[in-house]
Amino acid sequence: MRNDTFAKELISFIDSSPSPFHVVHNLKKTLRDHGFIGLDPKSHWELQKKGRYFTVMNDSALIAFEIGEGNIEEEGFKMIAAHTDSPAFKIKPFPEMRIKNYIKLNTESYGGAILHTWLDRPLSIAGRVVLKSQNPLNPTKRLIDFKEPIVIIPSLSIHMNRTVNEGVKFNKQKDTLPLLGVVNDEFGEKNRILRLIAQNLDVKIEEILDFDLILYPVEKGLITGMNKEFISSPKLDDLAMVHAGLKAIISARQTSGINVLVCYDNEEIGSATKQGADSPMLPYVLERILLSLGKGREDYFRALSNSFMISADMAHALHPNYEEKQDPTHHPLINGGPVIKINADQKYATDADTSAVYQEICQKAGVPVQKFVNRSDELGGSTIGPISATQLGIRCIDVGNPMLSMHSVRELGGVLDHEYIIKSFETFYGL
Fold it and tell me: pTM for the complete prediction?
């Protein structure tokens, strides 16, 4: 009998996290429940040894840390980094478009989604709404989740596109716009989205200044497979690694260094935002930690030299229908353990030194470990690993659990793998 406790917890976490803003909201709640104290980046920090803290950027990125009792300049930071965002469709301002009596929404794609997987699925809307306040520089922000399936992207009938099964090239401005509903009056009521938002949040339309809203599938994640070995769910990339890092930092035993969990936003669009990996967010927080502990700038650089980061993003498993797409000698399998990701052009931050470290961690944790390298004639993606390593000049490795259907609206991972990687993260934090 497989232990699916962690997998069920992951599915619950994903189901309650339809947008990066909801991800961070849920992280904050869980961290507070386990003794972590929230820090305002605009306030003076007074940190204590053995303290547990977190801070948030733009409501969609979070850094949590636990301070050990040792000298940080000698012990360094042990960091796990993941990201809160996933490919999606973002609703544009003034999005309503009327075609005859149909009302559809104008959207733009976010990240590299497999577009056809979004068609003909019940979708809802979630994100952040910005409201008027007494201070124009600090408007009020509220989370919103309609939860109910209120939009759908209908596909074109095969009778009107006889070659559909030979492959379709989608026009994102035309083919992927979601249908909101049908109106029966001649002119139709305007500002339907704003009215729906106002009704959901119990505010006046005039209070709504702007919004960050995305579409998401309402179908829940589940455990499947002949032996209940698979996790089928949206957003495994990369909420599986966010959840694993969260489980590890709240359960790992106290050490002499500083354990850090970094949950960036915007990895799917290159990380070049104030809350992304290609920003000073993490360096600023790490330095502020040392300054609050009475350390100097040289101590900060010494601490970085003694630090190690695990960049945690999902990895590609061998696809049974496309075996030729994998490298001839590297075939990561679902439920075969965490995957070390390697690239000669440093699209991943892994080198022999950091790979050896993580292999030792997995051995100590009692979990198997695998390796992934792209075919030499295929371009792969990249991660936050090389960006973070460049920002900080620290040792870093890229790892992740093997999965299929990456960037589909619904992805497939392994029940055992999620338990494996949590154990490896707990072991890392406990070193």
Answer: 0.95
